[in-house]
C-alpha cells in the first residue's frame, strides 16, 4: 500500500472547532490504495509546516494533503497555487502576524499543487457535493504550509498540496454557507480516491 500523510489544523481566530481536523480524524484508515496517517497541526506560521515535514521524515509518505478551514466558502476547494508570501490579517495561534514576509527567503514566487486537483474536483462533484478549484490559498498559515511542502518536495515523487473546506453548521452565521461533518468526510474521501 501507499502512504498518505493527511493533516488538519487546530481552531484559530476565535473559533472553538476547526472543520479540517474534525474531518481528517474521522476519515477511514484506508482509501483506495492508500493507508492514511493523520496529523493535527497548529495554526502557527513555520511551526505547522515543520511538524508536517518532521512526520514526513519518519513515515516517508507517497502523498501529502493538508486540509484547512476557509470560512465563507461554499464548497470543498483544492488549491491550485501557493505563493511565497506571509501576509496575516489576524494573529496566528502564537500571536505572530507577519506581513510582507517571504515563506522561503530565496524561493520562487509560487508553486502549483502537485496533486491531481482537477480530478479531485470531479470526484467530489460526483458525490453531489459542491467543489471547485481555488486559485488562492490566501497568505496565512494554510498557504505557508502548502508553499513550504511544495518547496521542500519539488523535484521528488511526493505529491503534495492543500484542500480548503467550508465552515461547519455550528460555525456559520446567518446566510454563511457550510457543510455537515458527514458531507466533508464524504468529500475529502472522494478527493483522496482521485489520487493515482
Ligand atoms: N485555515 C487557515 C489556517 C488554519 C486553517 O484551518 C488558513 O486558511 O490559512
Write a structural description.
It contains five helices and eight strands; from the N terminus they run E-H-E-E-H-E-E-E-E-H-H-E-H. The longest helix is centred in the N-terminal third of the chain and has 13 residues, at about 45-60. About 30% of the residues lie in helices and about 20% in strands. Strand 2 and strand 3 form a beta hairpin. The model has no long low-confidence stretch (mean pLDDT about 100). The protein has one domain: Aminopeptidase (3-Layer(aba) Sandwich). The chain has helices at about 20-25, 45-60, 115-125, 140-155, 180-195; strands spanning about 1-10, 30, 35-40, 65-70, 75-80, 80-85, 110, 160-165. A six-stranded mixed sheet has the order 2-3-1-4-8-5, with helices on both faces. A two-stranded antiparallel sheet has the order 6-7. It is α/β, with parallel strands linked by helices.
Main traits of this protein?
196 residues; alpha/beta; Aminopeptidase; 5 helices; binds pyroglutamic acid
Q: Topology, please?
A:
Blueprint: E1 2-9, H1 19-26, E2 30-31, E3 34-41, H2 47-59, E4 63-69, E5 77-78, E6 81-83, E7 110-112, H3 117-126, H4 141-153, E8 159-165, H5 181-193
Parallel strand pairs: 1-3, 1-4, 4-8
Antiparallel strand pairs: 2-3, 5-8, 6-7
Bound molecules: pyroglutamic acid.
